[in-house]
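Entry type: protein chain
Record version: 2
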Amino acid sequence: MSKTAIDSFRYSGDIVGLKKAALTACERMGLKLKSETQTDAGLNIEAGEKMKWLTTNWPVSFNVSAEKVGDDWAVIVTGGARMVSITQDTNNQQKAMELCNLIKTLSPGKVS
């Protein structure tokens, strides 16, 4: 299996706004939503890319999770693929960063 890529940030704001930003980011990236769970303790969203047949990379699956840390939320975006290609690790990192940055941009609260 290819290495998993991780990107993260701190979010100060409402969890409902963060969830909306994460779902919108997944939609804009053309990801297929697999599951979403929100509780008072946090948030977990699983999504994945559709298979693209004319590419050197396998589809990346993502997990967006948020956990309460003091007054803020720790948001962690993880991306990885089941199969390996020569450029998969770089692709995983770029896609995880892209999703993380899009969530930051769409989030209504303060991001650091």
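Comment: The longest strand covers residues 61-69.
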